[in-house]
Request: fold
Amino acid sequence: MRDRARPVMLRAWRPMARRALLAAGLCLTALSPVQAEGRITAATYEGPTDRYDHGVLGDKLEWTTLRLTLEDGTVRRFTLPEDMVFEDLSPRLADVTGDGVAEVIAVETSLRLGARLAVYTAEGRLVTTDHIGQRNRWLAPVGAADFDGDGRIEIAFVDRPHLLQMLRLVRLEAGELREVATLRGVTNHRLGWDYIVGGVRHCAGRPEIILSTGDWLANLSVFWSRDQRLDTRAEGRFTGPESLEKLIRCET
Reply:
């Protein structure tokens, strides 16, 4: 994820770039998708807006539009209605359906009902979680993998990383994102950071989620245990984002 790999760069780039685009009067509208075959190869946000002033990511600007680039060069844009924004750093490509083709994971926020996780295909929005239910409530994505080893993909995110601090795993089943596991007392974001820390690593033959404890005192690896639940292992003190990055790189 770009926000994990270059947090220092993002701290400088995100506010300046978004304000510059807004000042230039950039106005994007939804485009009718062109009928073309192709996989999603890139995704980004466009259309900075100040219509939602939560500021959880360090400024008062969010995004209106998700831009997808397909393998054949086709570009498709999906623009949210005026009562919603993409409250996020960058969209994430991941094979959520398990068909070998990447979908896009994004954070959509209602100005009234708060954030929700959304999955997009080249045809548009595929599925979402429910909104958190209250304005100025957010979630921070972690990543996607087959955490429980059953051959199906789960998406991990931290629900309200500054308040509830709940890790949730959801899986696409029967056209819905159904919750399969939760873990309380963990986080991957501090209020005002324009980056998200932690993520998913593959160091011991299985995917593990790297997070901090909710008090930011210790690092944790979170994994699926033999008794079919999420378990944790202490991974040293949290001394800053780099201490989590080292764990993701499988460094001790």
Observations:
- The CA atoms of residues 3 and 93 lie 14 Å apart.
